[in-house]
Amino acid sequence: MQDDALVNYDFHCPYCDSPLTFLIDTSQGSHDTWEDCHQCCAPIQLQIIVSPMSGELESVVAGRDDDVL
C-alpha cells in the first residue's frame, strides 16, 4: 500500500448526522464495505468506486445498513 493510495473521505452519518472521516485505500479498487459510526455505533454501508484507469477515487455512496446500494 502506498501513501498516495490513501484518501480521507468526509461525510455525515446517515443515522445520527455526526460528521465522520474515514480513510479509504484506493489500491483495493472498487468495493463495498461497512464501517461503524464513531458516535452512535450504527453500521454504515460504503460503496467505493475507484477508476480502473487512473486509480483515483471517483465516488463514495454512504447508506444505512439496510439500504440497497
From TrEMBL:
This is CPXCG motif-containing cysteine-rich protein. It comes from Halomonas campaniensis. InterPro entries: zinc_ribbon_bacterial (IPR025990). Pfam families: Zn_ribbon_21 (PF14255).
